[in-house]
Design brief:
By secondary structure, the chain is of the alpha/beta class. It has a single domain, classed as Aldolase class I (TIM Barrel), CATH 3.20.20. It has eleven helices and eight strands. Helix 1 runs parallel beside helix 2 and helix 7 crosses helix 8. The longest helix has 18 residues. Bound molecules: 2-phosphoglycolic acid.
Length: about 250
């Protein structure tokens, strides 16, 4: 048995105004009561002050969906790690495929963001995953190993206990097309093997690896039962407290 943390993290993406966020988070707090796993909700930036206030003293952690890697300066429209940390944010999603695809994030900027998050004491949730084309071309493994190696190039073994990795096949995100538990397990194991290569086996065994991509109340239990899947990063189903609660309940 590993002593890895099981983490159920919601990614609200660009949904919920501050008022709506307050209501949804209130419901999430109810369904998360007594959870056997770590629960995280990653909200839009403007919802964070309210979310941190509502979640204070509860077992629900608040996360952001991005940050800028610079500490401060002339970067119009950006948010620094220190700004998030001061609010009481504990987690931050880094390198989500939507950010890589629509906002030109690269493996290099992802690496800088991981460093900024760790320096500020935030837990980065590093997202990696292949497109359908890459899977069909047989370069999935290579692609994911490259993403991991570049993102973690400057992270010391001692800091890996504070890093969470999420495997999110792009073809499964928001499509209702979930990876089978075998497919998800195969890649989560590949990620763990890559971590063992980069660091050592004990370090690799200590890292929580999540699966994301159309995880829902129905398929969560089977995915979470896989030996190398330590939780989920949940988009659509995290916007309905009842469904999110069922996923939390499936995480033992
Ligand atoms: P989904 O999104 O659960 O809606 O597929 C997952 C994610 O993008 O993190």
């Amino acid at each position: 048995m590993s002593n890895r943390k099981t983490i159920i993290a919601g990614n609200w993406k660009m949904n919920k105004t501050p008022k709506e966020a307050e209501a949804l988070l209130g419901d999430v707090l109810n369904v998360a009561k007594g959870a056997a796993c770590e629960v995280v909700v990653c909200t839009p930036y403007v919802d964070l002050p309210c979310a941190c206030a509502v979640a204070k003293g509860s077992n629900v952690n608040v996360g952001a969906q991005n940050l800028h890697f610079k500490a401060s300066g002339a970067y119009t429209g950006e948010i620094s790690a220190a700004m998030l940390q001061e609010l009481g944010v504990g987690y931050v999603i880094i390198g989500h495929s939507e950010r890589r695809e629509y906002f030109a994030e690269t493996d290099a900027t992802v690496a800088l963001k991981i460093g900024a998050a760790l320096a500020a004491g935030l837990t980065p949730i590093l997202c990696v995953g292949e497109s359908l084309e890459q899977r069909e071309q047989g370069i999935m493994g290579e692609h994911i190993r490259t993403q991991i190696k570049i993102a973690l190039a400057d992270v010391a073994a001692a800091d890996m206990g504070k890093v969470v990795v999420a495997y999110e096949p792009i073809w499964a995100i928001g499509t209702g097309k979930t990876a089978t538990s075998e497919q998800a397990q195969e890649v989560c194991k590949l990620i763990r093997d890559t971590l063992a290569e980069l660091y050592d086996d004990a370090t690799a065994q200590s890292v929580s690896i999540l699966y994301g991509g159309s995880m829902n109340a129905k398929n969560a239990a089977e995915l979470l039962a896989q030996p190398d899947i330590d939780g989920g990063l949940i988009g659509g189903a995290s916007l309905k407290a009842e469904d999110f609660g069922k996923i939390i309940a499936a995480a033992k």
